[in-house]
Design brief:
The complex is a heterodimer. Chain A is mainly α. Helices cover 39% and strands 1% of the residues of chain A. About 6% of the residues of chain A have low confidence. In chain B, the strands form 4 sheets. In chain B, strands 1-2-5-13-8 form a 5-stranded antiparallel β-sheet. The chains are: A mainly alpha, B alpha+beta.
């Protein structure tokens, strides 16, 4: 009987405890749904913003397979809860977050970073030059478009970096316009610790990724080559052959005594591809492995 | 001095009475049948005098308007289709917005202005969109409350077609007014009580385009008499709230700026005819 009494009390007490536990769990769930207060759903947004919704529907953000807006709160994942906006009848910026030009760039980027904080390459965003100069994600990325949301490179970059666009259009240039390399081939737009946000600690190393033949080591090194390619080359483009900063021989004569090989200024006879330049006799200008003294003078 | 017969006085009195009564009658545009009510000009406190509005409704300031006649109802689909027969106000999730007696919606500011121009040419009168100041003066109808029936929402469904219980059944997430006006979407114009100027649906049913360019700080920049903002700005003003709006949108002083080429399911207009 005693055992029966224990069970008689134990079972209802257990049930009571279970109910309390479930109720507490329910409270937690309720709080979570409380966080969703004010969310009205994408179809309501679509009623007024059909064009934006349709473009969103074509974008990668719409895919349920990624951990993106569509698997969360759709439009309201980025724009915030829309109930008040709807209640008031909409209007630009009325109780809704918009990615307007006037909006604080850091506030806009913060919205994207909610998900993209861990996207590869984003580790240095905070200290990157773009972020520090009030460039926000939407400055380059168009989100309401179908297909890839990667910015068009170099067009988007040239939108701000006009001087580079000018250089890239010069007679001798890296094949950026031709689409053989892109700005992002050398630069890390999401942030880098290096000057110019280049993708290598040392600019030399960046050049050597493609121009490995200039890397050396050579028996006879040319000191300015060892130091920095940009001593002689303008990396984006130049009006002189081979992206050189100046015409040869003037470029060489910045360091080398001009009295030995007097230079010839541009005239109607000396064209862009002058046959009479220093490299005609000193072709191994980036370094020579010739065992003789000729190597020292980069003749071979 | 010639003595007038008593019959002359009676005739003059009768004529005066008939003339004044006629003046009070709504004017009906012959081309479309739109009815216009004469609103006597005056001064009022424009803006959020109650304190439940947004910053763009302040500062509250005195505005004065001249006499004008304003549409008793919002322009209907039937009236608008005399101008553009192919226009379709569409539907909202299966509920039609395109019946002849429903307010025309999905019209841009540019469409509304084009309609006013068309009617003006057709009828020989000068029609236009109301200025914000005229619109609010007409909507308030002498009231200084949030809505022309008062601050309370209790009677909202008698006076206006708003986001209500009926709409809530279809759009559960909306913030609604806890009453039942019987319509999930737009109602036939004039289905609800008019304000004291005899104007229907000044709040609710469909938003209404106004003439002014939208500026959130317009109230600090405008003159007192017949104000209208024509400064720089890319948006035009809409007023009055619609069938999809809750308490914050259904207020006489509430103002929103939208792109003039934008139209949506609860945005229409009514016209003004300058008093002669």
């Amino acid at each position: 009987m005693k055992r029966g009494n224990i069970f008689a009390h134990f079972v209802p007490l257990s049930l009571l405890l279970l109910c309390c536990t479930l109720a507490m769990g329910g409270t937690t769930g309720g709080k979570e749904s409380g966080d969703k207060m004010g969310f009205i759903g994408a179809l309501t947004c679509k009623d007024c913003h059909e064009a934006q919704y349709n473009s969103y529907a074509k974008s990668i953000h719409f895919k349920n397979s990624i951990k993106g807006p569509q698997s969360q709160d759709a439009c309201e994942t980025c724009h915030g809860a829309g109930a008040k906006h709807v209640e008031k009848g909409g209007g630009r910026d009325v109780d809704i977050f918009t990615f307007d030009k006037k909006k604080d760039p850091k506030e806009k980027s913060a919205r994207c970073l909610t998900c993209h904080q861990r996207t590869p390459g984003m580790d240095l965003w905070e200290m990157g030059v773009h972020n520090r100069n009030d460039v926000s994600c939407d400055s380059c990325h168009e989100l309401h478009v179908g297909g890839s949301q990667k910015p068009k490179d170099p067009e988007v970059c040239f939108g701000c970096h006009r001087n580079i666009k000018i250089e890239a259009n010069k007679r001798s240039h890296h094949p950026i316009l031709e689409g053989k390399i892109r700005c992002s081939s050398c630069h890390a737009p999401h942030g880098s610790l290096n000057k110019g946000m280049v993708k290598a600690d040392d600019p030399q190393q960046l050049c050597y990724k493609c121009h490995a033949d200039k890397r050396g080591p050579a028996a006879w090194e040319h000191p300015p080559v060892e130091e920095d390619c940009q001593n002689c080359h303008n990396v984006h483009g130049s009006n002189h052959a081979r992206l050189l900063n100046e015409r040869i021989p003037q470029l060489c004569q910045n360091c080398h005594d001009w009295s030995r090989h007097p230079g010839t200024p541009y005239d109607n006879k000396a064209t862009f591809s002058s046959r009479w330049d220093c490299l005609r006799c000193h072709p191994s200008i980036h370094g020579s492995n010739s065992p003789s003294g000729g190597g020292m003078r980069h003749v071979r | 001095m010639s003595r007038k017969r008593p019959g002359t006085y009676i005739f003059l009195l009768f004529f005066g009475y008939v003339a004044s009564a006629y003046a009070e009658l709504p004017y009906a545009d012959p081309a479309t049948g739109m009815e216009f009510v004469l609103v006597k000009g005056g001064c009022y406190q424009m803006g959020d005098s109650v304190g439940d509005g947004d910053p763009n409704e302040r500062p509250v300031h005195e505005a004065c308007v001249n006499d004008f006649s304003i549409g008793k109802f919002e322009v209907t689909n039937g009236q608008y289709k005399k101008f553009r027969p192919q226009h379709n106000s569409g539907d909202s999730q299966g509920s039609t917005l395109n019946n002849d007696n429903q307010p025309v919606v999905n019209v841009s500011w540019e469409d509304a202005v084009a309609f006013a121009k068309w009617v003006s040419q057709k009828s020989g009168h000068s029609y236009r969109l109301p200025t914000e100041a005229e619109w609010e003066y007409a909507a308030r109808a002498g009231s200084n409350k949030s809505r022309y029936w008062g601050n309370s929402l209790d009677d909202a469904c008698k006076h206006a077609n708003v986001a209500d219980i009926t709409a809530k059944k279809q759009w559960a997430q909306w913030t609604t007014i806890p009453c039942d006006d019987g319509y999930a979407v737009s109602a036939p114009v004039g289905s609800f009580k008019p304000n004291s100027y005899g104007l229907n649906d000044m709040l609710g049913n469909a938003w209404e385009w106004c003439e002014d360019i939208y500026n959130s700080e317009a109230y600090t920049k405008l003159p007192k008499n017949n104000p209208v903002f024509n400064g720089s700005g890319e948006y035009r003003v809409m007023r009055g709230g619609g069938w999809s709006n809750g308490p914050l949108g259904i207020r006489s002083s509430h103002r929103v700026g939208l792109s003039p080429n934008f139209g949506h399911h609860a945005l229409g207009f009514r016209l003004v005819k300058d008093a002669q």
